Amino acid sequence: MSNHIKIFDTTLRDGEQSPGCSMNQQEKVEIAIQLEKLGVDIIEAGFAISSKGDFDAIEAIAKKVRTPVICSLSRAIKADIEASAAALYHAKHKRIHTFIATSDIHMTHKLKMSPEQVIAHAIEAVKLAKSFMEDVEFSAEDAGRSDPKFLIKIIEAVIKAGATTINIPDTVGYQTPTEFGALIHHLKSEVKGINKVDISVHCHNDLGLATANALAGVLNGATQIECTINGIGERAGNTALEEVVMAIKTRRDIFKCDTQIHTKEIMRASRLVSQVTGSMVQPNKAIVGANAFAHEAGIHQDGVLKARRTYEIMDAQSIGLNTVELVLGKHSGRAAFGAKLKELGFTVSKEELNKAFERFKTLADQKKEIRDNDIISIVSDEVFQAPEIFTLHYAQVTAGNTTRPTACVQLIKNSKTLEATATGAGPVDALYKAIESLVKKKINLVDYVIHSVTDGTDALGEVTVRIQEGDHIYTGRGSHLDVLVASAKAYITAINKQLDGTKSGPKINAKV
Ligand code: KIV
Ligand code: ZN
Q1: Which domain holds residue 372?
Q2: What mean pLDDT do residues 264-293 have?
Q3: Pair (376, 402) in one structural domain
Q4: Which band of pLDDT confidence, cut at 50, 70 and 90, is reported for residue 385?
Q5: Which of 268, 454, 465, 468 is deepest in the core (most CB within 10 A)?
Q6: Which helix (H) or strand (E) holds 69?
Q7: How far lies 407's CA from each of 141, 421, 425, in Å?
Q8: What is d(CA 86, CA 65) in angstroms, rounded to the nearest whole number?
Q9: Is a pLDDT exceeding 70 seen at residue 512?
Q10: Of 150 and 451, which is predicted with more confidence?
Q11: How far is residue 281's CA from residue 335's CA, in Å, rounded to a whole number?
Q12: What mean pLDDT is predicted for residues 135-139?
C-alpha cells in the first residue's frame, strides 16, 4: 500500500507502564482483540522478560490474535531476546523489538558503556533476534537527545545486522515538532540503507507535544507511529492513537497518507482501556473526551444546528460515537442485551453473558432507562474480575451527621462466610476497615475516585481504587446504585488482584 502509515500500538507495554495501569492477562487479551478490530498493524503485547504475567499475556495474545503482528520488547540482552522469542512462538506474525540507549547521558550514567560497546551490543542483539524471526525492530532509546552522528553510525550498523524497522524515540518528551521533524529528515537522507526499512517514531508527552512530534516525523518520512489508546504511558504518556489517526484522516490534504485504522472502533477501544485501567479520560481530551463533540456556547449550538460543519471538523459517528442510542429497559430480553454487548464491542463467554444479564435485570428493576454507559459499567464488573478470592456477600453502613460511621461486612471465601464490624472516620473508612480485618492484611489505599456513570440521581456510581504493595499498584473498580456497595466491590477487586499478584502488576526486574 503506498503512503501507508503503520500504527504500532503499545498500550499493553508502554501504556501499562503508567502508574496504576497494570492489567491482568484476561484484560490484556480483551484489549488486544479490540486492537485487532481497530485494525492496528502491530500490537506490542508486553515485555516478556519483565514478569511471568507479561510473558503469559504475550503468549496468550499470540495464540488468540492472528491478524496484526504481535511484538515483544527486549533490552539488548540475550535473555530478554530469548524470552521474547519464546513468548511469541505461537504468533502468526511476530516481531522482536530490541532497544538500547544512545544518548551520552544514558550511556554514561545508566549503561556505563562506551559508544563502541553500545554499538556492539546493538548489533549482537539484532543478530540474535534475527536468528528467531525476520521482523526485528531496533530502538535507539533517548534518540531525541542523542548525537545525530552517533545515531547514523548505530542505525547503519543495525540495518546491516538485519533490523527491518528503526524506531526513533523521544523517550523523555523533550523535542519540539520542528526539531524532531528535522531529525527524521536528517536520518532519512544520511543513513545508508534507510530506504529498505521502516522509520518509526515514538514520542512521549512531557511537554504536551507527543502528537505534534509524531506527525512532524510523518511529514519528514516516518512510516510507522508508536502510540497508545487514550495516550496512556510512562509519565505524561505517549502519542495518542486516536489523535494521530484522526489528524491523518481529517487533514489528508497535509499529510498525504493513510492508516488502515477502522476509526469507528476508536470510541470502543478508548472506553475499554479506560474501564480496564481505571484511568479516566479527561473530558476535554481530543477525539475521545466526553466534551470533544459537545457544543455549549449558544452561538456554537446555533451554528451546528444550521450546518454541523460550522463547528465540527469531524463526524462523531466516524469514531463510533452513537448519536442515536438504543436505550434498554426492564422488558429487554437476553437477545437484545447480547446484541447490545456486541454493538459495544464486548466478546463475552456464555457464563459472563449470564452473569451480566442478571446484573442488568436487577438494575432494570430499579432504574427505568439503562444507557450504554450503564451496560459498559456492569459488564466490566462481571468480565474484568481478578480471581474471586473474596466476594462481597453483605455490606451495611450507618452514617450521618450525628452518628459514628459503622460498617458491617460479610465476605465469602472458599464457601465460608466471614463477618466483621468496624467504625471509622467516615462511611468508606468504616467499610474498608471492616474488609481489611476480614482479609487479615494491611491494605495501602493510594487513590479513591467516584463518579456517576450517567446523569440523574438514580445513576450508577462507579468507584475506582488503587492500592499499593511495594512497587506494585493494583486497580479495582466496582459499580452499584449504592455508592458504598460500589466502594466495597472496588476495594475487594483490588485486594483480590493483590492477593493474586503473580497475574498482574507492573514490571519487576526489568523496568524500561
Ligand atoms: O520511550 C522509549 O524510549 C521506549 C523504548 C523502549 C522504545 O519506550
Ligand atoms: Zn516509551
Answers
A1: 298-383
A2: 92
A3: no
A4: low
A5: 465
A6: strand 69-75
A7: 51, 6, 11
A8: 17
A9: no
A10: 150
A11: 31
A12: 98
Centre of ligand 1 from the C-alpha of residue 192, in Å:
23
> Residue 327 has which C-alpha cell?
436505550
Residue 188 belongs to a domain: yes
If pLDDT is split at 50, 70 and 90, which confidence band does 146 have? very high
β-bridge partners, 463? 450, 478
Take residue 437 and report the three cell numbers written for it: 480485618
pLDDT for 2: 60
Instruction: Tell me, using a 6 A CB cutoff, whether residue 237 lines ligand 1.
Output: no
Domain annotation covers residue 346? yes
Do 399 and 303 lie in one domain? The reply is: no
What is the reported pLDDT for 302? 79
pLDDT digits (tens, 9 = 90+) for 65-83: 999 999 999 999 999 999 9
CA dist 469 and 441 (Å) reads: 11
Is residue 361 a part of any domain in this protein? yes
* Number of domains the chain is built from: 3
Q: What's the mean pLDDT in 130-157?
A: 98
Task: Say if residue 57 is in the same domain as residue 115.
Answer: yes
| Average pLDDT estimate for 229-254 | 97
Atom of ligand 1 nearest to the CA of 167: 7
Cell of 433: 476497615
Residue the block writes with cell 501504556 = 15
Name beta bridge partners: 450: 463
Q: Is 141 in the pocket of ligand 1 (CB under 6 A)?
A: yes
Per-residue pLDDT band for 299 (boundaries 50, 70, 90) equals: confident
Cα Rg, the chain, nearest whole Å: 24
Q: What is the mean pLDDT of residues 83-96?
A: 98
pLDDT at 509 over 60: no
| Mean of pLDDT over the chain | 92
Q: Looking at the domain assignment, is residue 68 inside a domain?
A: yes
**pLDDT at residue 503 is higher than 50:** no
Element (H, E) at 483: helix 483-499
Query: Is the CB of residue 120 below 6 angstroms from any atom belonging to ligand 1?
Result: no
Task: List CB-based neighbours of ion ligand 2 within 5 Å.
Answer: 14
CB distance 169 to ligand 1 below 6 Å: yes
Q: How long a stretch of residues is the chain?
A: 512
Percentage with pLDDT > 90 across the chain: 72
Tell me, what DSSP letter sits at residue 238?
Answer: B
Rounded to the nearest 10 degrees, the angle between the axes of helix 350-366 and helix 334-343 is 110
Domain boundary among 383, 417, 439: 383
d(Cα 22, Cα 11) in Å, to the nearest integer? 11
In the reported structure, the alpha carbon of residue 171 is separated from the centroid of ligand 1 by a whole-number distance in angstroms of 6
Q: Cell numbers at residue 260, please?
A: 488502515
Taking alpha carbons only, the member of 60, 497, 477 closest to residue 274 is 477
> 465: exposed, middle or buried (C-beta count within 10 Å: 0-12, 13-18, 19+)?
buried
Largest CA distance in the chain: 77
Three cell numbers at 55?
510473558
Residue labelled with grid coordinates 532519512: 188
Residue 303 sits in the same domain as residue 192: no
